[in-house]
Structures are given as structure tokens and as C-alpha cells.
Design brief:
The chain is an alpha/beta fold. It has helices at about 15-30, 55-65, 85-95, 120-130, 160-180, and strands at about 5-10, 35, 70-75, 105-115, 135, 145. Strands 1, 2, 3, 4, 5 and 6 form a 6-stranded parallel beta sheet that branches. It binds ligand FNR. Ligand FNR binds next to helix 1.
């Protein structure tokens, strides 16, 4: 049975490079995993006043996470951190206090940007957040991918051999990490 991976893409843009990267990883995972892409664009801005009247979109997000074996974060970098839309979704899914959706699940972080540092700063900020919500975040391998035009096709195929092998290694290690935690 394939692992169920709940995927956060930290960009809402239609032509998102990070969405392409997530598709590439899904393809490379093959039969070992099923990727479920989480909708985060409709999650209301988190407001603690609503912990007792939780927004339905937040409950939906939490249920999707709970049904997954693992969580994968594929994120853009905005101003040397993670996009607000992603932080909002994580804050929502972590609440109300004591009823967060992440507790104990395996997770991993990856991202791509046109800059040479390839989302390194955003990923480091994100790791800080994910450890606090008690996800079991894979330490290595890290993957900071500098996006160049044509690196990943719209369907997630990767023409460059070196890049494809690098991403294959990353996804293989991630699924091994998931395997050491399997729960449900
Ligand atoms: C960016 N971009 C960017 N890139 C980067 O490497 N480091 C950064 O700090 C930032 N900051 C930043 C802020 C804002 C508000 C925007 C809109 C963009 C560029 C960013 O990497 C680029 O737009 C990517 O294409 C975003 O990822 P997606 O949407 O293609 O997945």
C-alpha cells in the first residue's frame, strides 16, 4: 500500500515552480506514495477567537493531514522566509491548543527559487516552525534547488539527468524516513 503524503505547496501562483517541483517528486516516488495536495488558499486568517467555532476550511485541512502518513512541504521563499499563506495554514492546523493535526508525523522540507540560495533561508525558518508543532522533520538530505527556465516541465518531468537523480535520491530517502514512522 502506498504511503499517503499530504503536500503543502508554499505558493498559490498557477505557474508555481514549487508546484512543479512537487509534481516531479510525486512522479519520482512512483508506486511508493500517493500525494494529496492540500488546499491552503481558502483558509481564513488565523484568529484565536475562533478556536471554539473553528472554521470549516481549517477542520478540513486538519482532517486531510490526520489521514496522511507524512507531510511534505515544498515552498517558495518570500523575503528570506516562508510565504504568509503557508504560515497561516500551519498555524491553523496546529490549533486549538492540544488538538493540532501534526503531532508525531514524519515530514520533510524542500523548495526552489531562481536565486542561488534556492530557498535555504525559508527552509531554515520553516524547520524551526515544524519542530515546534512536533513534526518529525527529516534532517538530511537537504535540497536547495535553483530554478532555471525549463528545469521542470508543467507535468513534473525533469529532463536534466543530474537534477532528476538528485531529486530521486531525495524522495527515496524521504519515503524511507516515512517507513521508519509508519502510523495511521
Ligand atoms: C520573492 N522571491 C524571492 N526569491 C528568493 O530566492 N528569496 C527571497 O527572499 C524572495 N523574496 C520574494 C518575495 C516576494 C514577495 C515574491 C513575490 C518573490 C522570488 C521567488 O523565488 C519567485 O517569485 C518564485 O517564482 C516563487 O516561487 P513559485 O511561485 O514559482 O513557486
Amino acid at each position: 500500500e502506498p504511503y499517503r503524503i499530504a503536500v503543502f505547496v508554499g505558493s498559490l501562483r498557477k505557474e508555481s515552480h514549487n508546484r512543479r517541483l512537487a509534481l516531479a517528486l510525486e512522479k519520482l516516488a512512483g508506486e511508493r506514495a500517493r500525494f494529496d495536495y492540500l488546499r491552503i488558499d481558502d483558509i481564513p486568517l488565523y484568529n484565536q477567537d475562533r478556536d471554539s467555532d473553528f472554521p470549516a476550511q481549517g477542520t478540513r485541512l486538519k482532517n486531510e493531514i490526520r489521514q496522511a502518513d507524512a507531510v511534505l512541504f515544498v515552498t517558495a521563499e518570500y523575503n528570506r522566509s516562508i510565504p504568509g499563506v503557508l504560515k497561516n495554514a500551519i498555524d491553523t492546523a496546529s490549533r486549538p491548543y492540544g488538538d493540532g493535526a501534526f503531532d508525531g508525523k514524519p515530514a520533510a522540507v524542500i523548495g526552489t527559487s531562481p536565486g542561488a540560495a534556492g530557498t535555504a533561508m525559508a527552509q531554515q525558518h520553516l524547520r524551526n516552525v515544524l519542530v515546534f508543532v512536533n513534526l518529525s522533520v527529516m534532517a538530511q538530505p537537504e535540497a536547495f534547488l535553483q530554478y532555471k527556465e525549463g528545469l521542470i516541465e508543467a507535468d513534473g518531468s525533469v529532463a536534466n539527468d543530474g537534477t532528476r537523480r538528485f531529486l530521486q535520491g531525495y524522495v527515496d530517502r524521504f519515503l524511507d524516513w516515512v517507513g521508519t514512522h509508519r502510523q495511521r
